[in-house]
Specification:
Order of helices and strands: HEEEEHEEHHE
Helix content: 25-40%
CATH superfamily of the domain at 4-87 and 127-138: Electron Transport, Fmn-binding Protein, Chain A
Shape: globular
CATH architecture of the domain at 4-87 and 127-138: Roll
Distance between the termini: 16 Å
Strand order of the largest sheet: 2-1-5-6-7-4-3
Structural class: alpha+beta
Largest sheet: 7 strands, antiparallel
Strand content: 35-45%
Number of helices: 4
CATH class of the domain at 4-87 and 127-138: Mainly Beta
Number of strands: 7
CATH topology of the domain at 4-87 and 127-138: Pnp Oxidase, Chain A
Amino acid sequence: MTDEQALIDLIAAHREAVLATVKRDGHPQLSNVLYVWDADARVARVTTTADRLKARILRRDPRAALHVAGPSHWAYAVVEADAEVSDEARTPGDDVCRELLPVYTTLMGPQDEEALYERLVAERRVVVRLHATRVYGLVVERSPSA
């Protein structure tokens, strides 16, 4: 069994994950995403556009899971979460733009704030906040059956 701190460390060390949401028919909807983990708040932040399927699903049903792969097939962490989708960015520099700025700088390096804010508004970007309710997974270096 992996202790929770090892799982949190794995989540904090990565930026790529698979986001699972629940479609109306009960089947999972999976999206490859980039995220930024806020360990203090236990929140993963993802950006998407207002009309993308994951945003529409999460507005209807906020249950989500974020699967983070580790350095081997036998290492992974899953963040079960209650999702919150922000309003879309409407005005350069608004609250949504300011919340997304550190997400973009963490994922892509320094940004020209004015140009980024204009792009976020034009793309109708939103913040998906994944509030962790449970973390589970496995962090091992070799196959558990070996």
